[in-house]
TrEMBL record:
Leading EC class: ligase
Transmembrane annotation, as ranges: 23-41
Binding site for Mg(2+): N209, D223
Family: Belongs to the succinate/malate CoA ligase beta subunit family. ATP-specific subunit beta subfamily.
Residue ranges of domain ATP-grasp fold succinyl-CoA synthetase-type in the record: 41-213
Site (Important for substrate specificity) location in chain: D45, Y113
Annotated protein name in UniProt: Succinate--CoA ligase [ADP-forming] subunit beta, mitochondrial
Species this chain originates from: Terrapene triunguis
InterPro entries per UniProt: ATP-grasp_succ-CoA_synth-type (IPR013650), ATP_grasp_subdomain_1 (IPR013815), Succ-CoA_synthase_bsu_CS (IPR017866), SUCC_ACL_C (IPR005811), Succ_CoA_betaA_euk (IPR034723), Succ_CoA_ligase-like_bsu (IPR005809), Succinyl-CoA_synth-like (IPR016102)
Keywords on record: ATP-binding, Ligase, Magnesium, Membrane, Metal-binding, Mitochondrion, Nucleotide-binding, Transit peptide, Transmembrane, Transmembrane helix, Tricarboxylic acid cycle
Positions of the ATP-citrate synthase/succinyl-CoA ligase C-terminal domain: 272-392
GO molecular function: ATP binding; magnesium ion binding; succinate-CoA ligase (ADP-forming) activity
Subunit field text: Heterodimer of an alpha and a beta subunit. The beta subunit determines specificity for ATP.
Cited function: ATP-specific succinyl-CoA synthetase functions in the citric acid cycle (TCA), coupling the hydrolysis of succinyl-CoA to the synthesis of ATP and thus represents the only step of substrate-level phosphorylation in the TCA. The beta subunit provides nucleotide specificity of the enzyme and binds the substrate succinate, while the binding sites for coenzyme A and phosphate are found in the alpha subunit.
């Protein structure tokens, strides 16, 4: 919100409450300041918005039973009651899934009365090889639903990344979105300034949903979502320092520290792979043979022994993991480095779950020799299809053993 506002866009006036404050102190402060909000915000009707990094708040549910993460309040008592049911509680939406997201802050903003709501976004589009403006007259709703039900309602305007956005492009999009003639220029100015923000801060997406025509005849940005390119961290450190890690899985934080690409999933077969494409193919072949991957984990092309060890720590921190498949095709990545990391991880973590390793490429013979010399019981397989079948079978064996409450120890040939 601060970023969008700093670029001169019309926003709802608001205050954020929460963060490190204790819940009781926060609510007392909230109760006290409620009397001053009409003076600060210029409105008697206020909206309490749960601050979580997920969409679908309005239709979400808090642990405790509160329905909706966006509530209109009319009194201090109501504000206190609503905020106490939000802060410190998890909000579950379509985007959060079963894990939910903890709400540490609430956003208090003035209530506005829009005449019409629009959708506006900027993102990078591969087919256009650059940024694209996206607009729709269907604002304030899930844009994915609009795309599925009425795709013609979504308009795209490609931007030449070298020349930048032109006023006529923004005007053309505003007209197609249905802004009244007297507001087309104002809407276009909003779009241009948001595009400049998009470029300056290395964003991969800026979404304004909704952008509205207010009852007073003003174009306003009512809500904003911005994603940033992690590859631009060195240029945008101030932006990334603002990241709220309480909104993220602890493993995501650990993965970022180790410079690993990790995404947790719902399965029970851990995956350690080099390269995003090979990682996707590995998950696909696990699914093909009836298994379910527990994660996406790409160690990249220049992983160190330490990173491989950290990768195993990440995988095994998920208690659902019953078996691990390591799939490495060594080009830039050396197989012997992976082998050293596997050996160190198995020893340091005292791993008891079965591990299937498929190594091909640079220094693969050295890697196999290291694993053999280690004396560890790790199942090696040169064929990816066979490796996937093995790890799926092993995960099924462990699952059956757990269901039967039987302790199984694996003695696998090298």
């Amino acid at each position: 919100v601060r970023l969008v506002g700093a670029w001169g866009r019309s926003l709802t006036r608001a205050l954020a409450l929460g963060g490190e404050a204790q819940i009781t102190e926060l609510l007392i402060a909230f109760f006290f300041f409620f009397f001053f909000f009409p003076l600060i915000l210029g409105s008697k009707d206020l909206v309490v918005k749960a601050q979580v990094l997920a969409g679908g708040r309005g239709k979400g549910t808090f642990e405790g039973g509160l329905k909706g993460g966006v509530k209109i309040v009319f009194s201090p008592e109501e504000a206190k009651e609503i905020s106490s049911k939000m802060i410190g509680k998890k909000l579950f939406t379509k985007q959060t899934g079963e894990k939910g997201r903890i709400c540490n802050q609430v956003f208090i903003c003035e209530r506005r009365y829009p005449r019409r709501e629009y959708y506006f976004a900027i993102t990078m589009e591969r087919s256009f090889q650059g940024p694209v403006l996206i607009g729709s007259s269907h604002g304030g709703v899930n844009i994915e639903d609009v795309a599925a039900e009425t795709p013609d309602a979504i308009i795209k305007e490609p931007i030449d990344i070298v020349e930048g956005i032109k006023k006529e492009q923004a005007v053309r999009l505003a007209q197609k979105m249905g802004f009244p003639p007297n507001l087309v220029d104002e809407a276009a100015d909003n779009m241009i300034k948001i595009y400049n923000l998009f470029m300056k801060y290395d964003a991969t997406m800026v979404e304004i949903n909704p952008m509205v025509e207010d009852a007073s005849g003003v174009v306003m940005c009512m809500d904003a979502k911005i994603n940033f390119d992690s590859n631009a961290f060195y240029r945008q450190q101030k932006i990334f320092d603002m990241q709220d890690w309480t909104q993220e899985d602890e493993r995501d934080k650990d993965a970022a520290k180790a410079d690993l690409n990790y995404i947790g999933l719902d399965g029970n077969i851990g995956c350690l792979v080099n390269g995003a494409g090979l990682a996707m193919a590995t998950m696909d072949i696990i699914k093909l043979h009836g298994g379910t991957p527990a994660n996406f984990l790409d160690v990249g092309g220049g992983a160190t022994v330490h990173q491989v060890t950290e990768a195993f720590k990440l995988i095994t921190s998920d208690k659902k993991v019953l078996a691990i498949l390591v799939n490495i095709f060594g080009g830039i990545m050396r197989c012997d480095v992976i082998a050293q990391g596997i050996i160190m991880a198995v020893k340091d973590l005292d791993l008891k779950i079965p591990i299937v390793v498929r190594l091909q490429g640079t220094r693969v013979d050295d890697a196999k020799a290291l694993i053999t010399a280690s004396g560890l019981k790790i199942l090696a397989c040169d064929d990816l299809d066979e490796a996937a079948k093995m790890v799926v079978k092993l995960s099924e064996i462990v699952t059956l053993a757990k269901q039967a409450q039987v302790d199984v120890k694996f003695q696998l040939p090298i």
